[in-house]
Amino acid sequence: MLSSTKLAHSVFRSTRLCRRFIRHSCLTLDIKPEQCIQAHTILQRKAAVDFSKTPISAIFVFHDPRNWVLDIQVICDVIQSGGIIGGPYVPLQQQIKEPVELVFCNPDLIWRSDFPRPRLGQGAFKEAFQAVYKALTGTHFPHVQYGKPTEPTYKFAEGVLKARLENIYGPIETMPKVYVVFAQWIFINNPESDIAGANGAGWESVLVHTGVYDPAKGNPPHEPSYQAPDVEKAVVQAILHECKVE
């Protein structure tokens, strides 16, 4: 059983990221940045939070959970009780029509680590949760998906880069060449999500062979603009391309 303090820490430990995400994204949740500050202040003061009286409006999955069973259980409890932990379950129709917002930040089913075989990612956790929820209720739960290859992720990146350039050089009407070089080239380590996102955003993509993709197994599901054996050669290839050098 999670204590109120530990659960609150789990919910609000990404306070700064949450504030920045809400400020720059097109997320439609009715959450103000100052609400995150208030939650963080509560933790700093080590005041007890009574979650039996404090409804949870949204669940953000920022990273791959370590304990899938516990996290799926907590998410199901929050959703089925209408946001009140430990409260009675609300009717299924209410769960779907007035849902606790569920936001996943990475759709990757697998990813590459030091282990010789691909590892399950946050996309796998999402599938596991949905399977359990459907087994309990007979239906999937509506959710919001961010991360590559979703368009808001690339719009967010463009906004951050534009803000950075304007912070250095002042207001700009058109993006200078340096923006095209650094923002319009995506260095791929998971072709399923990265290339699809780059293609959808109209960006150039370079598929490097040091991630999940194995060139010996055939062409990737989504065709990149270019391929390179590693990141260094991908950078050189991008520079040569932008300098019009064959």
Structure summary:
The protein has helices at residues 4-12, 15-24, 33-44, 68-80, 92-97, 122-137, 151-169, 177-183, 191-201, 231-242, and strands spanning 58-61, 101-104, 110-111, 119-120, 144-145, 185-188, 204-208, 226-228.
Descriptive report:
- By secondary structure, this protein is mostly helical.
- The chain is 47% helix and 11% strand.
- Strands 1-2-5 form a three-stranded parallel β-sheet, with helices on one face. It has a three-stranded parallel β-sheet with strand order 6-7-8, sandwiched between helices.
- Strand 3 (110-111) and strand 4 (119-120) form a beta hairpin.
- The longest helix is centred in the middle third of the chain and has 19 residues, at 151-169.
- It is globular and about 65 Å long.
- The termini are far apart.
What is the strand and helix layout of this fold?
Blueprint: H1 4-12, H2 15-24, H3 33-44, E1 58-61, H4 68-80, H5 92-97, E2 101-104, E3 110-111, E4 119-120, H6 122-137, E5 144-145, H7 151-169, H8 177-183, E6 185-188, H9 191-201, E7 204-208, E8 226-228, H10 231-242
Parallel strand pairs: 1-2, 2-5, 6-7, 7-8
Antiparallel strand pairs: 3-4
Helix pairs in contact: 1-3, 2-3, 4-6
